[in-house]
What we know:
The protein is an alpha+beta fold. The protein has helices spanning 9-14, 20-26, 76-98, 123-138, and strands spanning 44-47, 50-56, 59-60, 63-64, 104-115, 145-151, 160-168. It contains four helices and seven strands; from the N terminus they run H-H-E-E-E-E-H-E-H-E-E. A hairpin with a 2-residue loop joins strand 1 (44-47) and strand 2 (50-56). The radius of gyration is 15 Å and the shape is globular.
Amino acid sequence: MSTNSQEPMGTRKDSRLASAEQRLQELGIKLPAPPEPFGTYAEAVQTGHLLFLSGMLPTEGHGAKFIGRIGAELDVEAGRQAAHLAALNVLAVARQHLGSLDKVTRIVRLGALVATSGDVRDQPQVADAASELLQDIFGKDKSPCRLVYGVASLPLGTPVELEIIFEVAG
Length: 170
C-alpha cells in the first residue's frame, strides 16, 4: 500500500489515463470503512458540483490510531503515516457519498492541520503524505491548492486533521 514519492514519473503520469477506482486497484489500496462522525455533523455535504468533507482524522474504527504531536510524542514519519491514513478516510467517505471516486473531476482544496510542539516547522512534509496519495489516485493534473496549519491540539489528540473540497461530476 505504498505511495512512495520515489515512484517513476511514468507511473504518476499513467494515473491520468486510469480512473481513480482503477488506480486504487492497481496500487493494491483497499479503503477502510468510512469513519463515523465523532459529533453532531455530516461527514460530507454536496452543494452543486462541490463536495465538502468534514475534518478527517487518522482513525480506525471509532478511535484514533495515532495520538500525539509532531516534535513531542511523534516524529515526522509517524505524522506522515497519520496523514496517509486520514487521506484514506477522506477517500472512503467520498466514495460512500458519491458511489464511486470516478465522479471526482478535481480536488479543489486540501487543508491539513498538523499538531506540533515548539519550533517544529515540518508541517508541509507531514501534509505531503496526503497530497502524494491523492496525486497517486487522481493524477497530478487534479492536484489541489493546499493550506497547512501548525496547531497546538486536534480532536481525539490526533496529530493530523484533513479537510477537503472536491469538484464532482453532475
